[in-house]
């Protein structure tokens, strides 16, 4: 992996008052200045104007530093302490100035995602050098641009020891309005509106927003890596000072130390919201060839059924089909796929349809170098395009050292990254541009009843500093506080290079205007403008992609008419298509406007709208561009589960259709018969199928005469067909699974009997699958210690299932264990009860144990109860299988 640097120019600049007597690079304090007298230095933005930013660093008589910031004549940050305390020296007091150097930093760079792809910045940088205790040198480096002030510390000669405290602080005017989030390691807390002085005692996370007279100040950090730790803002109620608190009590120093930037984005609300300052001050990109980095829309199925949907190849293929139909670039398989063997099949399935696959993984599976090499190599071999890495939940130095390693490793393997349970963006997307988005927000997974304060404050806080994976479009979740048009608007208002869309397929299909807009809206932007809004009240954004503008507007409060000035448009006439809330669903309307006009859109309480604007041309009726989607196919089997005794036969019918307005050709369906089985079919091919036509084959299936009872197999039936795409024939496949099972004569399977009573620790008891989520039938195939079972009960501790026997059976037989889907987790014990008497128990079994066989006499028993209890460590992951649970009939 080659290294690259941003295009930049650096100039040494003289301090005018000293230029006649001091050298270019280092400007020392005048000899006549006594060391114990207060001193100060100022740094202003380049090309300073009336509202220019100026940082003032002051050194008092005790050798203590402070830094304050003015915007024009307004003090936006009052003087507050700066300094470090290390194990070798207290560098927050007794400091003596030894020099100053100044330079102009001008850089241009290309981003892969964000508010705008082409970036440029111009900053004045001043390095103030001091010595402290034991003649230990420390440099304070200050940068000022037209939209921000940042500082950091350099310890050029301190190569070991620890940083025990950073004395950095920000002091706001006491009456400044504040929008804050309580600090949490995953940054998923609610926003609170308060004032700088009245905020509660405790720690607050970045970014923190303050309103000071006609200015806004957003506090954050940038350039955090494994040489340091993350930080938070500690506050005591009644104080207007926010002190920086490190995530570690002691931060190890390993070589000359450069700390992260302490950053304040400053300006009017639009300037702060549109700023890229935390990226501008971050280290330049470490990746020279970014051609493989491709943001896009992602089908995210987690809120369509949780783990069970992630464990189902058929379900994942349906999301791939939908993505292919609507031009979405990716589909993400979340937590639940581990233990399945079909990931390479899904990648191939997606590749046929132009849809790439992303995969979820827990960060601990990538903890060591050996694990990273194994897992990332496997992902490359499968053809996975990127990873959603989850649950880091720490901002310690050791965790940032892990970030350093995983960022380098994923870049080397050309795997894009979406971090969840993570730190905030801190310039990481500039340094490592394959990081397409990060969570660090209270997202849609928390349920439909989202805080309107959060929804309308995120654009001005969290999303300012980098891409934000909120996962919008969860229309299927009940209790939404915002309107449907406002939810749709989040696809524009919230910037995320991977826009992980959280709806179910049925929810999308019930909303054609949602489908149409999501087909059109991109995830990367050439420009972004805040048109109007206030934190906690609403936001209207205009974002440009090529020659089209996309508008998104959200609001909190009563019904009103949103007035949108269109000055961001170019000259001439423009066609604007809006989608807003109507009395009976979403409504699309067209307008012809000029940049001097104001667009008026009625919105309901807590409502919003979206719009697309394009240059108006004679006869043009829409701004939509053609979407090169593939028609979805359907292939069903009736029945799809068949029980066949040894040597017997069964019949299965199929139905294959393609929802295409153009004929599909060369249709054929093949069956992959297991060893010893025979499958013969009729009507399995067609030269072409027109719209509405179906292929309806029939298969006769014969089991081997020596088939082993209580075993099963899955048969793949694959339809192959061709459809025109981009002027060429694309050959596609659609697979359907047929489950075959050889039953044992003279038994009844418990899963086929009615339950007299049932209780379960999570969701319902499942028949013939492992424990699923909250709905019946959403479990996965049962598997214990690598062995697959086709009959049984899937339960979750603590559980109890009762069935009536009425004296009809002589024995109860089953294999029990923890399902493989939870890995080595889980700890349970099994208990069999007949007519209230315990007749069999097991020791505690975990995910590392083999299945145990239970075979007990139930002669004359009237009722059988199967219980699972927790193994003593809590019920998390306690997925317990009663595999092949069966009752031997009497006589």
UniProtKB/TrEMBL annotation:
The keyword Hydrolase applies. One of its GO terms (molecular function) is hydrolase activity, acting on glycosyl bonds. Residues 744-889 form the Glycosyl hydrolase family 98 putative carbohydrate-binding module domain. It comes from the Bacteria. One of its GO terms (biological process) is carbohydrate metabolic process. Residues 760-784 are annotated as: Disordered. Keywords: Glycosidase, Hydrolase, Signal. Residues 1-34 form the signal peptide. It holds the Pfam family NPCBM. InterPro entries: A-galactase_NEW3, Aldolase_TIM, Galactose-bd-like_sf, GH, GH-type_carb-bd, GH97_C, GH97_catalytic, GH97_N. This is Alpha-glucosidase.
């Amino acid at each position: 992996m080659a290294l690259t640097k941003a295009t930049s120019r650096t100039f040494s600049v003289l301090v005018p008052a000293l230029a006649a007597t001091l050298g270019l690079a280092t400007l020392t304090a005048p000899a006549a200045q006594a060391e114990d007298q207060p001193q100060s230095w100022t740094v202003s933005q380049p090309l300073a104007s009336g509202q220019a930013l100026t940082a003032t660093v002051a050194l008092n008589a005790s050798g203590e530093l402070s830094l304050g910031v003015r915007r024009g004549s307004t003090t936006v940050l009052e003087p507050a302490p700066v300094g470090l305390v290390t194990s070798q020296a207290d560098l927050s007091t007794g400091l003596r100035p030894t020099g100053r150097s100044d330079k102009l930093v001008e850089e241009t760079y290309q981003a892969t995602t964000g508010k705008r792809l082409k970036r440029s910045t111009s900053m004045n940088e001043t390095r103030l050098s001091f010595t402290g205790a034991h003649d230990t040198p420390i440099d304070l480096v200050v940068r000022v641009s037209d939209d921000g002030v940042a500082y950091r510390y350099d310890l050029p000669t301190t190569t070991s020891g620890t940083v025990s405290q950073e004395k950095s602080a920000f002091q706001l005017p006491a009456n400044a309005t504040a929008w804050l989030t309580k600090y949490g390691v995953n940054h998923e807390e609610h926003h609170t509106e308060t004032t700088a002085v009245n905020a509660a005692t405790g720690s607050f996370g970045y970014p923190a927003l303050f309103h000071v007279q006609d200015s806004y100040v957003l506090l954050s950090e940038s350039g955090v890596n494994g040489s340091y730790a993350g930080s938070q803002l500690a506050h005591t109620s009644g104080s207007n000072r926010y002190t920086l608190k490190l995530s570690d009590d002691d931060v190890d120093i390993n070589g000359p130390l450069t700390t992260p930037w302490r950053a304040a984005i400053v300006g009017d609300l639009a300037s702060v919201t549109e700023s890229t300052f935390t990226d501008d001050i971050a280290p330049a990109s470490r990746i020279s060839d970014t051609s493989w980095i491709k943001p896009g829309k992602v089908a995210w199925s987690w809120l369509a059924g949780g783990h069970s949907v992630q464990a189902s190849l058929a379900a994942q293929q349906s999301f791939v089909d939908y993505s292919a139909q609507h031009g979405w670039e990716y589909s993400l398989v979340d937590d639940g796929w581990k233990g399945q063997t079909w990931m390479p099949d899904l990648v191939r399935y997606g590749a046929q349809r132009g849809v790439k696959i992303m995969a979820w993984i827990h960060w601990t599976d990538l903890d060591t170098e050996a694990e990273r090499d194994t897992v990332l190599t496997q992902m490359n071999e499968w053809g996975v395009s990127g990873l959603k890495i989850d649950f880091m939940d720490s901002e310690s130095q050791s965790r940032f050292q892990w970030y350093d390693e995983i960022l380098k490793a994923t870049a080397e393997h050309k795997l894009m990254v979406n971090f969840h349970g993570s730190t905030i963006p801190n310039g990481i997307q500039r340094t490592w541009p394959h990081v397409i988005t990060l969570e660090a927000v209270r997202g849609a997974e928390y349920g439909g009843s989202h805080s309107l304060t959060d929804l309308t404050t995120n654009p001005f806080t969290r999303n300012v500093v980098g891409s934000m994976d909120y996962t919008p479009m969860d229309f299927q979740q009940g209790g939404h506080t915002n309107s449907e048009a406002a939810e749709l608007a989040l696809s524009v208002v919230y910037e995320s290079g991977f826009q992980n869309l959280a709806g179910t397929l049925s929810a999308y299909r019930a909303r054609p205007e949602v489908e149409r807009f999501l087909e059109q809206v991109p995830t990367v932007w050439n420009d972004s403008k805040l048109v109007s809004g206030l934190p906690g009240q609403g936001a209207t954004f205009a974002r440009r992609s090529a020659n089209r503008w996309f508008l998104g507007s959200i609001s909190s409060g009563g019904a009103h008419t949103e007035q949108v000035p269109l000055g961001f448009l170019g000259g001439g006439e423009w066609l604007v298509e809006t989608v807003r809330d109507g009395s009976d669903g979403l409504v699309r309307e067209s307008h012809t406007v000029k940049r001097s006009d104001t667009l008026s859109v009625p919105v309901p309480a807590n409502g919003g709208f979206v719009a697309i604007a394009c240059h108006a041309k004679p006869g043009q009726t829409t701004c939509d561009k053609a979407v090169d989607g593939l028609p979805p196919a359907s292939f069903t089997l009736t029945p799809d589960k068949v029980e066949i005794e040894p040597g017997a036969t069964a019949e299965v019918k199929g139905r294959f259709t393609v929802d295409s307005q153009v004929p599909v050709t060369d249709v054929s369906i093949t069956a992959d018969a297991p060893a010893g089985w025979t499958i013969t079919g009729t009507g399995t091919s067609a030269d072409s199928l027109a719209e509405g036509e179906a292929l309806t084959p029939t298969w006769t299936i014969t089991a081997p005469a020596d088939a082993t009872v209580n075993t099963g197999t899955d048969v793949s039936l694959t339809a192959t067909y061709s459809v025109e795409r981009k002027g060429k024939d694309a050959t596609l496949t659609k697979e359907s699974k047929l489950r075959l099972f050889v039953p044992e004569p003279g038994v009844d399977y418990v899963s086929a009997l009615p339950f007299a009573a049932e209780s379960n620790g999570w969701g319902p008891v499942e028949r013939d699958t492992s424990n699923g989520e909250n709905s019946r039938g959403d479990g996965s195939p049962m598997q214990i210690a690598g062995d697959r079972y086709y009959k049984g009960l899937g339960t979750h501790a603590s559980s109890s299932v009762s069935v009536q026997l009425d004296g009809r059976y002589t024995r109860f037989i089953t294999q029990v264990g923890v399902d493989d889907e939870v890995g080595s987790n889980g700890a349970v014990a099994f208990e069999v009860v007949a007519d209230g008497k315990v007749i069999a128990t097991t020791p505690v079994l975990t995910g590392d144990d083999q299945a145990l066989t239970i075979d007990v006499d139930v002669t004359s028993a009237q009722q059988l109860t199967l219980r699972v209890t927790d193994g003593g460590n809590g019920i998390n992951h306690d997925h317990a299988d009663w595999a092949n649970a069966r009752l031997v009939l009497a006589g």
